[in-house]
Amino acid sequence: MPQLTLQEVEHIAELARLGLTQAEKETFCEQLATILGYVEMLNGLDTEGVPPTTSALPLSNVMRSDEVSSSLPTEDALANAPDADADQFRVRAILE
């Protein structure tokens, strides 16, 4: 099983912008090493003649074609708006 050093885990945490305690770093050392061990096992499999795939399931496009249709009238769209101005929704500015 591959072993990770504490420095490698700290580097990974830094890249992910995670603030970890010392106990969490030690836990992740073990957990990430276990995950890498499983990946190492997968690398040992014979995949000769197996075509690369993006999904294990046969996928097809389930989206409908775009169709031009009439839109909701402006009055109906704004009917329940708490505030409207010049046929537009009016919202508070959110600035920091």
Which structural traits does this protein have?
96 residues; mainly alpha; Histone, subunit A; 2 strands; 38% helix; 4% strand; flat
Describe the structure concisely.
This protein has 96 residues and is mainly alpha-helical. 38% of the residues lie in helices and 4% in strands.
Indicate the structural class: mainly alpha
Mean pLDDT: 90
Q: How much helix, percentage-wise, in residues?
A: 25-40%
Largest β-sheet summary? 2 strands, antiparallel
Quickly name the level 1 CATH class of one domain.
Answer: Mainly Alpha
The number of E-state strands comes to 2
**Named CATH architecture of one domain:** Orthogonal Bundle
Distance between the termini: 49 Å
CATH topology of one domain: Histone, subunit A
What's the helix-strand series? HHHEE
Low-pLDDT ranges: none
Question: Taking strands numbered 1, 2, ... along the chain, how are they ordered across the largest sheet?
Answer: 1-2
CATH H-level homologous superfamily name of one domain: Glu-tRNAGln amidotransferase C subunit, N-terminal domain
The tally of helices reads: 3
Strand-residue proportion: under 5%
**Approximate shape:** flat
Task: Please give the radius of gyration in angstroms.
Answer: 27 Å
Structure description:
The chain is mostly helical and 96 residues long. The protein has a domain at 6-43: Histone, subunit A. It is built from 3 helices and 2 strands. The chain has a two-stranded antiparallel sheet. β1 (84-85) and β2 form a beta hairpin. The longest helix is centred in the middle third of the chain and has 22 residues, at 22-43. It starts with 5 loop residues before the first helix and ends in a 7-residue tail after the last strand.
